[in-house]
Amino acid sequence: MDNFSHKISTKALFVYTICLLSLSPIIKAQPNFLFMDCPNATLTNTSTYAPNSTYQTNLNTLLSVLSANSNNSNGFYNFTAGSSPPDVAYGFFLCRGDFSTADCQDCVVSASKSVVERCPGSKQVTIWYDPYCMIRYSNESIFSTPYVGFRRILRNPQNVTNATLFREVLGEVL
User: Domain holding 56: CATH number?
Assistant: First the structure.
């Protein structure tokens, strides 16, 4: 009889473990922080905001709305939070077009959570996550305005496998 109860408890433990594993979410790879343009206020005359200020409230709203709309199928969304300059927060996200909506959403949500921690107090920030997305926000309108701040070249570390085809496509694009 003792052997029988041991078999039942082993089977019960096995079934319990399988049930737990089937309920646990599948772990996805998180986007990797790549680069951030977080201007130093003393070097670029970029203004900063105080904790619990109107701008911080508007920025929190902006980042929340961007995250909520990151399931947008075209991989881009812009929003403006607030109505009284200089406390208006303008922002957008942009995802690479060759990644899924779910990857875009994961990236935007991660970036929205970490951007303020990585660059506290700055009213103008651009953050890139590899390989999926970027978020940019400012206290000045950035829509239809060229970015003239710090420039960074993002390179692909992989080698071209077909140099002839690459040159042909490059020639067409340029």
Answer: 3.30.430.20
The pLDDT mean for the chain works out to 79
145/135 Cα distance (integer angstroms): 15
Number of structural domains the chain divides into: 1
Shortest CA distance to 95 belongs to which of 141, 124, 128, 118? 128
Q: Give the domain range for residue 125.
A: 28-151
7: in domain = no
> Per-residue pLDDT tens for 6-52?
555 555 544 444 443 444 344 455 678 888 888 754 444 457 899 99
pLDDT digits over 127-158, tens only? 988 878 999 999 998 887 766 655 555 566 67
C-beta neighbour count of 96 within 10 angstroms: 14
User: Which residue type occupies 55?
Assistant: Y
Angle, CA 61 vertex, CA 58 and CA 63 arms, to 5°: 110
Query: Three-state DSSP class for 36?
Result: strand
Does the reported pTM lie above 0.90? no
Does residue 3 belong to any structural domain of this protein?
no
Asked, for residue 80, whether it belongs to a domain, the answer is: yes
Considering the domain boundaries, does residue 23 fall inside one? no
